[in-house]
Design a protein that fits this description.
The structure holds two protein chains of two kinds.
Chain A lengths: L2 E3 L4 E5 L4 E3 L2 E3 L5 E8 L6 E7 L6 E3 L2 E6 L4 E6 L8 E9 L7 E2 L3 E6 L1
Parallel strand pairs in A: 2-12
Antiparallel strand pairs in A: 1-4, 3-9, 5-6, 5-10, 7-8, 8-9, 10-11, 10-12
Chain B lengths: L4 E3 L2 E4 L5 E6 L6 E7 L5 E8 L2 E4 L8 E4 L6 E5 L8 E8 L12 E2 L3 E5 L1
Parallel strand pairs in B: 2-11
Antiparallel strand pairs in B: 1-3, 3-8, 4-5, 4-9, 5-6, 7-8, 9-10, 9-11
Classes of the chains: A mainly beta, B mainly beta.
Chain lengths: 115, 118
């Protein structure tokens, strides 16, 4: 069985602070995929990143960076110099290599960035 | 190039009524997935369909819920005799093919349909 845990249900920061959202996953698959999605107040889901299990390189995209640690089964997401527009619920998700895209989502972390 | 289109965006039903939620996948996508998001929770997989076929419905409640993706037209998620516990956001996603290993295979989600049962 697959499981994704986002232990932080809510985080509040002041603009320009850095913030890290934690994601810990469980799977028995040797090949799997990890995702982050953003859900702004408008409600839609916005894809941020996909990472496969055999690529442990960290990734940076502008103010966003991701730290994939297979040894600790974690895929953490850091926002540098946070902005009010970053306020949203962020979901980490896990998929495997079987047919279909039945992703397992974590419970989400609500990030509030205050001006 | 329109994304995944869901309608209605908001639907209010009284207990015992039927709810029908529609999803048109992205152009060129032939795989549709429905997920449910209960209040303050993450998304839970419900069903995976291709045209005219249900591939995996392991996440669907056994009663009152059904889904279809006909040869022509949108995918439909149907909830019969709704109860208050069905109140949730229902998200549809689509992909061009089934295996997430494909480089083009990130799920594209619609904006969701929010069902409120009074």
């Amino acid at each position: 069985a697959q499981k994704v845990t986002q232990a932080q249900t809510e985080i509040s920061v002041v603009e320009k602070e850095d913030v890290t959202l934690d994601c810990v996953y469980e799977t028995r698959d040797t090949t799997y995929y990890l995702f982050w999605y953003k859900q702004p107040p408008s409600g839609e889901l916005v894809f941020l990143i996909r990472r496969n299990s055999f690529d442990e390189q960290n990734e940076i995209s502008g103010r966003y960076s991701w730290n994939f640690q297979k040894s600790t089964s974690s895929f953490n997401f850091t926002i540098t110099a946070s902005q009010v527009v970053d306020s949203a619920v962020y979901f980490c998700a896990l998929g495997n290599n079987n047919a279909g895209n039945m992703l397992t989502f974590g419970g989400g972390t609500r990030l509030m960035v205050k001006p | 190039n329109a994304g995944v289109m869901q309608n209605p965006r908001h639907l209010v039903r009284r207990r015992g009524q039927e709810a029908r939620l529609r999803c048109s996948p992205m152009k060129g996508h032939s795989h549709v997935y429905w997920y449910r998001q209960l209040p303050e929770e993450g998304l839970k997989f419900m069903v995976y369909l291709q045209k005219e076929n249900i591939i995996d419905e392991s996440g669907m409640p056994k009663e009152r819920f059904s889904a279809e993706f006909p040869k022509e037209g949108p995918s439909i998620l149907r909830i019969q005799q709704v109860v208050r516990g069905d109140s949730a956001a229902y998200f549809c996603a689509s992909s061009p093919r089934s295996r997430v290993a494909s480089g083009a295979n990130v799920l594209t989600f619609g904006a969701g349909s929010r069902l409120t049962v009074l």
